[in-house]
Amino acid sequence: MRWIGLPSDLRRPLSAYAAAVSEALGKALVGIYVHGSLARGCYSAATSDVDVIAVMENPCPDESAEELSALHAQSDIPLDAAFVTQCQLGYEGVPTPVEFVIKPSGPSKPRLRRGSHGYFLLDRQDAYECSIALAGVPFRDLARPVPWPVLAGCLEDLRPHILPKFKSPALMLCRIAYAFVHREFCSKREAGRWALTALDERWRPLIEQALNRYAQGLRDDSGPTDELRALEQECRSIIAQAQGT
After folding, report:
1. Which backbone phi and psi does 51 adopt, to 5 degrees?
2. 98-119 burial string, b = 16+ CB within 10 Å, else e?
3. C-alpha–C-alpha distance, residues 226 and 245, integer Å
4. pTM score, whole prediction
5. Is residue 1's pLDDT more than 60?
6. End-of-domain residue from the set 126, 144, 162
7. What are phi and psi of 96, to 5 degrees?
8. What is the pLDDT of residues 131-155, one digit of tens each?
9. Positive or negative: CA dihedral 198, 176, 125, 68
10. Residue 2 lies in a domain
11. Is residue 50 within 8 Å of residue 78, measured between CB atoms?
12. What pLDDT digit, counting tens, does each position of 114-133 carry?
């Protein structure tokens, strides 16, 4: 399969991962999809996870979930995957039921978590807008876009966590503001470039620094500084204006 847009050094490990998941799930597998920074062309091996959604026909038994978790431990890339059934893929409540998620937490200890996923609808919309199928039909053949009011609620819930918890918090704030203005998602890099012209000139040094660090694969661990808090207030104003409030 020709995976347009995937960096050459990731094609082999992703091909091996897709083949292993296909073997583990057999006919129950509907498709495997990469989204996020990798699908949007701004993946950094130093700071990015490989975001994956795997869609199944039926619920997954515990033994299969453990087998899939073991596959993550064997992979050379930081896989952050959500496994969902086709029925769950159509759910639009928050938190959203999923079979399980497997989060990277070191080379040999991925974390498997069953139950709901508070922000899965953001992942689903991101995959709808921009994804690469590792197996199965295109993602848009399986899912519809998430209604904007639902997405807006998810983004509002996410916003308080950005400064204390997220990598590249300045770019994430810009990314959320962009989403409210355009009612679609973009990459952190695209959001930063948009913010250079959409925001007041006084934010240019901060945004340019964030873009440079992101391009170099450097984490931003500065925490919620006064400057970032001020940028957050600026983005809130843009969001309020976009909402007409």
Report:
1. -85, 130
2. bbbbbebeeeeebebeeeebeb
3. 25
4. 0.93
5. no
6. 144
7. -100, 130
8. 999 999 999 999 999 999 999 999 9
9. positive
10. no
11. yes
12. 888 889 999 999 999 999 99
